[in-house]
Amino acid sequence: MIHHLSIAARDPQRAASVLAELMGGKAVPFPPNPGSFFALQLDEHGSGVEVYPAGTELAPNGEVGGSFVKRPEHRGYGSTHFALSVGTGRDRVEAIAREAGRKCFVCNRGPFHVIEVWVENETMVEILPPDFAAEYLAFTRPDQILTRMEATQTATGRH
């Protein structure tokens, strides 16, 4: 289980606030990296997304732990994305994204559906409301996922 992950944004407070609203949680400052915010789902797993200012890089720093290195701001599309199960219904997810000015698309991934919400219209988050999360979990059952992945076809229109 992934408990938390980090992404970068030009406006970390706004990005974290929108993510927290989608999760039905709360966004709070993230003191280890000033200017960062932590979108907390407030669930029993400690789920959350740390949102750092654009240009932040994590670098090894021995036993002290990774350091936050500031580089000139660079944003754009990237390969990072994640799926996030939420208790929020589909209509509300779409409304939150629309109110925040975010690109939002309901997508059929074949065996399951997702709602792509694009943080700052550059970083994809696959939102899974309860019914979509059930589809995803049915597809990824440990006793069947390997066979199902081998049988999955390349998606047309995504390359």
Description:
This protein has a single domain, classed as 2,3-Dihydroxybiphenyl 1,2-Dioxygenase, domain 1, CATH 3.10.180.10. The chain contains 4 helices and 10 strands. The chain has helices spanning 12-23, 90-99, 130-139, 145-151, and strands spanning 4-9, 26-29, 37-40, 48-53, 56-59, 67-70, 81-85, 104-108, 113-119, 123-128. A hairpin with a 7-residue loop joins β3 (37-40) and β4. The chain is globular, with a radius of gyration of 17 Å. The model has no long low-confidence stretch (mean pLDDT 91).
Question: Can I get a quick summary?
Answer:
By secondary structure, the chain is an alpha+beta fold. It has helices at about 10-25, 90-100, 130-140, 145-150; strands spanning about 5-10, 25-30, 35-40, 50-55, 55-60, 65-70, 80-85, 105-110, 115-120, 125-130. The chain has 4 helices and 10 strands, in the order βαββββββαβββαα.
Task: Give the helix/strand layout.
Blueprint: E1 4-9, H1 12-23, E2 26-29, E3 37-40, E4 48-53, E5 56-59, E6 67-70, E7 81-85, H2 90-99, E8 104-108, E9 113-119, E10 123-128, H3 130-139, H4 145-151
